Amino acid sequence: MNYSAYIALFLSVIVSGIAVLFVNISSKSLKLVLSFSGAYLFAISVLHLIPEIYASSSHDIGLYILIGFFMQILFEFFTEGIEHGHIHIHHHKGHTHAFPWAMMLGLSIHSFLEGMPLADLSNDSYQSLLTGIVLHNIPIAIALMTMLIKSHIDKKVAVLSLVIFALVTPLGALTSHLIGANMIGDFSVYFDKIMAVVVGIFLHISTTILFESSENHRFNLIKFLIIILGAALAFVGHGH
Description:
Layout: H1 3-19, H2 27-56, H3 61-79, H4 101-115, H5 126-150, H6 155-181, H7 188-212, H8 221-239
């Protein structure tokens, strides 16, 4: 178990989410962070994760990538796209104080699954995967807290929700570690399938972010440079 990874996953969410209470993070800034994280996720999937799972797995591994891709489509019926920065204010009888239980559940399942491959410390792309999930969770934490505060959810409830979200990805890694430790036989097959599902999720989220980064099909130089920077970071990591 890599305790530093658990701490990084937890603190990245807490710090970025709590920052919303003290700093006005504009939607423009959030979109730039999303563009960077989306480019990084897409690049590590193409450069690291997909080649590795195809090299070490059976020919049907692509099926699990597809399962992850379509699972994310299903999740977004509940999360309302908060994974790629969509912030929907929740109303209840004319007042904005209805807690979005379905969104929180969908987001938790999504994050739990993403944490599961992190139990495989032998994976050559472990550091890239960890960095990708951390970068991915930062804008989600910002969007989550922004949505809860704008929905006039009690701040204590909002912070508690943030803490729960911060714990879910490490919990996924811990659960997967316990499954692997108690599994009889070759548990590398299990990790490859879990990784393939997560790659499918990454592909859906990253491509959605990158498609949405070009608003009204206009070229935006800043966003383009941010996207190139995110991909370049993944490429540099691939070189090592």
